[in-house]
């Protein structure tokens, strides 16, 4: 028998790691992307989704929202909600798993984009840095 909870916890842990890399500060600074909401499971009007959005509208990428009002950071708790919402039906659990994997891929792609943006900023600033270094050398000679 397949251990659904173990699969979900593993996928949620990968998502958490990917989002940690995504929000990590870059040098030079680049802006965070606008987060996309990924719904993993639904039960009537209640959802399990990432990232959580607080009442004040703040997006919390380190948290998952369950039942639309509670936020959790624990992969174990979130996987229990997903299993409850899906009724442990293999088709629905697989759909939730694929959505978690899609969120992870989204984070990884945005992380690479931020890295490329930082590299481009450094490339564009190189010529100014070279001029400043030449000015510094000239000032040291005088």
Ends apart, CA distance between termini: 80 Å
Q: What is Rg?
A: 21 Å
State mean pLDDT (0 to 100 scale): 93
Which oligomeric state applies? single chain
- Low-pLDDT parts are none
Number of helices: 3
DSSP E strands, number = 6
**What proportion of the residues is helical, as a percent range?**
55-70%
What structural class results from the helix and strand content?
Answer: alpha+beta
Largest sheet: 4 strands, antiparallel
**Silhouette:** elongated
- % residues in beta strands: 5-15%
Strand neighbour order, sheet with most strands: 1-2-5-6
Could you give the order of the helices and strands?
Answer: HEEEEEEHH
- Compute the number of structural domains: 1
Describe the protein's architecture and organization:
With 142 residues, this protein is of the alpha+beta class. It has one domain. The chain has a four-stranded antiparallel β-sheet with strand order 1-2-5-6. Strands 3-4 form a two-stranded antiparallel ribbon. It is elongated. The model has no long low-confidence stretch (mean pLDDT 93).
């Amino acid at each position: 028998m397949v251990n659904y909870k173990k699969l979900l916890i593993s996928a949620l842990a990968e998502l958490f790691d990917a989002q940690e890399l995504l929000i990590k500060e870059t040098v030079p600074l680049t802006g965070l992307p606008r987060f996309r909401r990924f719904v993993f499971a639904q039960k009537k009007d209640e959802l399990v989704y990432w990232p959580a959005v607080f009442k004040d509208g703040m997006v919390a990428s380190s948290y998952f929202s369950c039942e639309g009002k509670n936020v959790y950071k624990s992969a174990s708790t979130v996987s229990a909600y997903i299993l409850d919402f899906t009724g442990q039906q293999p088709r629905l659990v697989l759909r939730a798993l694929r959505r978690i994997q899609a969120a992870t891929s989204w984070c990884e792609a945005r992380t690479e984009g931020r890295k490329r943006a930082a590299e481009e900023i450094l490339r564009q600033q190189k010529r100014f840095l070279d001029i400043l270094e030449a000015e510094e050398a000239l000032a040291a000679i005088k």
